[in-house]
Amino acid sequence: MKGFGTKFLVTTAAFCFLVAPNVWAKDIKIGAVLAVTGPASFLGGPEARTLEMLVEDLNAKGGINGDKIQMIIKDTTGSPEKAVSFAKQLIEEDNVVAIIGPSTSGETMSLKKIAEDAKTPLISCAAAEVIVNPVASYVFKVPQNDSFAAQKIFQEMKNLGIARIAVLSSNTGFGQAGKEQLTKIAPDFGIQIVESEVYDKQITDLSAVIAKIKANKEVQAVVNWSIEPAQAIVAKNMRQAGWDVPLFQSHGFANIKYVEAGGVASEGIIFPAGRLLIANLLPDSHPQKAVLVKYVSDYETKYKENASTFGGHGYDALMLLDAAIKAGGADREKIRTALEKIKDFPGTDGVFTFSATDHNGLGIDAFEMMTVKDGKFVPYKK
Fold first, then answer.
1. DSSP notation for 51-92
2. Of 181, 84, 183, 196, whose CA–CA distance to 129 is shortest?
3. Contact residues for 4 (Cβ-Cβ < 8 A; gap 6+)
4. Cβ-Cβ contacts under 8 Å for 173 (sequence gap 6 or more)
5. What is the pLDDT of residue 32?
6. Considering only CA atoms, which of 297, 299, 295, 305 is closest in space to residue 349?
7. Interatomic CA distance for residues 195 and 217, integer angstroms
8. Where would you tag: which of 231, 254, 268, 291 has the fewest CB atoms within 10 A of its CB?
9. Are strands 98-100 and 28-34 parallel, antiparallel or unpaired?
10. What is the pLDDT of residues 47-60, one digit of tens each?
11. CB within 8 A of 350, min separation 6: which ones?
12. DSSP 3-state assignment of 271?
């Protein structure tokens, strides 16, 4: 009996040793509040699909530090009210360690205080600079700053000898923030905004607005700042009016679906964007090349649709969380601290270097100027 007892204890200890990793392993719960359906689904749809693809891949490789990821995606349909409700649910009931999203700037601004009060890291997929300026301890974002987009546009205008412009913007958080940046920065480049119009995000025709600003003979170019289908409408209405001044769009134009919607009217549009659109044209030595090419290939193979910069925002948000959790552990405060220490991290939006005073981590060099030629995005050359 004594021998049997000894053997039993040894066998039991060995069994416990073998199964311990599985017994004690726990899921890392990460929340996402994205506009998967609704008017902003061209943002949230690719973001959600990207997250699902990455989680499947990461879990197949063992998760993060041996723990599987449980991604809980909530569809806000672009509604700030839904974003608030879902964020509270994810934090209070699901006990997530971090939240990815929302997809739009307006939604994100509605969550800043919630994330701060709950001390839960929020990595936004929206672009407005006010999301991270002023800095909020637990709020980060991955798209490039709209102030840098405005500067890139104005730099190109100066190269083209353009000094007087019209600004169009949608009545959204993104549109409002962009208009503010354009208005603030224009004088630094010797550019005067002689016409400025704000339109409803659901508008289906802008011909009256185009006619009004066209009547001002001082206007040498138009800047449109939105993420709605109106980007294509502006281009079409300008073409229909026979107005051929240069049309600049914001970095929100970086989705080939806008080009398809605008048809021939999209030809020649100039805009700043991240390098995902020209991944294959980058030199092999570029720090983003491998990341971009793999992401585009993986996404397009899996979903049979073009990869967009918006899906790339989802990629960057999750991979930054992956790096932070690997470095500091799956704890809200440790994740926040680890995010601020990330340096020289190649993503789809650029090479990220965060700090306590910079929760975007990207500079103006994360942008390239693009244009549309023969229905495709190509680098812009004067």
1. HHHHHHHHHHTT-BTTB-EEEEEEE-TT-HHHHHHHHHHHHH
2. 181
3. none
4. 104, 105, 106, 107, 108, 109, 126, 128
5. 98
6. 295
7. 11
8. 268
9. parallel
10. 999 999 999 999 99
11. 144, 274, 275, 288, 361, 362, 363, 365, 366
12. strand
In b/e form, how buried is each residue of 273-289, taking b as 16+ CB within 10 angstroms?
bbbbbebeebeeeeebb
**Residue carrying the six token digits 């585009």:** 296
In this predicted structure, the answer to whether residue 98 has a pLDDT above a threshold of 70 is yes
pTM score of the predicted model: 0.88
Confidence of residue 109 (pLDDT cuts 50, 70, 90): very high
pLDDT in tens, 1-31: 444 444 433 333 343 434 444 444 589 999 9
Retrieve residue 360's tokens.
Answer: 């975007």
Delineate the domains of the chain, giving CATH numbers in brackets: 28-144+285-365 (3.40.50.2300), 147-273 (3.40.50.2300)
Determine phi and psi for 75, rounding to 5 degrees. -90, 110
- Residue 256 identity (one-letter amino acid): I
